[in-house]
UniProtKB/TrEMBL annotation:
InterPro entries: Flavoprotein-like_sf, RNR_NrdI
Source organism of the structure: Lactiplantibacillus garii
Upper lineage: Bacteria, Bacillati, Bacillota, Bacilli, Lactobacillales
Protein name: Ribonucleotide reductase assembly protein NrdI
Any one Pfam family match given in the protein's UniProt record, by short name: Flavodoxin_NdrI
MF GO annotations: FMN binding
Length: 150
């Protein structure tokens, strides 16, 4: 799982999700927080990306599309074609931002042409954990199946 977390919400969500995967699904996962690993590496195994929205002002309708603070994650995905192994993105944010809620992840899905899987708010809820775990496994299986078929 590749992600960026600036104020810790996404990091907290990822740590709960990791524990859930290991304890409830017997699946081992590893993750990279781009904020803490600024040296890019080539990713050649399928992965999912998590991206909280940090946009510059606006309302997401007439303006407010400009990503700030998280652009390093886009650079990481672009590096050596890493995005080609990403089977989808999960957005997050704060619903107070209305139309801008989780918008950056939607922008990345278009830019890199991978699926927008789903989203959650802030640190997520207890319901979000199994829901997002299921979604990840579904998209991962689809991606791996397609890759093997080609
Ligand atoms: C300067 C700033 C801009 C933000 N812009 C948005 C936004 O456009 N849309 C949104 O849904 N959330 C926005 N948020 C909320 C964050 O996405 C939210 O707090 C998220 O959980 C932060 O994740 P992190 O703690 O892992 O960094 C913004 C927060 C800050 C501080």
């Amino acid at each position: 799982m590749l992600y960026i977390s600036l104020s810790g919400n996404t990091k907290y969500f990822i740590s709960r999700l990791t524990t859930y995967f290991e304890k409830e699904r017997h699946v081992r996962v590893s993750s990279i927080n781009v904020k803490e690993h600024r040296e890019f590496t080539t990713l050649d195994q399928p992965f999912v990306t998590f991206l909280p929205a940090f946009l510059k002002g606006g309302n997401g309708v007439n303006n407010g599309y400009t990503e700030i603070l998280t652009t390093i994650l886009g650079d990481y995905l672009a590096y050596e074609g890493n995005y080609q192994h990403c089977y989808g993105i999960i957005g997050s944010g704060n619903r107070n931002f209305n139309k801008q809620f989780a918008l950056t992840a939607k922008q990345y899905a278009k830019r890199f042409d991978f699926p927008y899987i789903t989203d959650f708010e802030l640190r997520g809820t207890a319901h979000d954990i199994p829901r997002i775990a299921d979604a990840i496994l579904t998209y991962r299986n689809q991606f791996c199946f397609q890759t093997t078929k080609e």
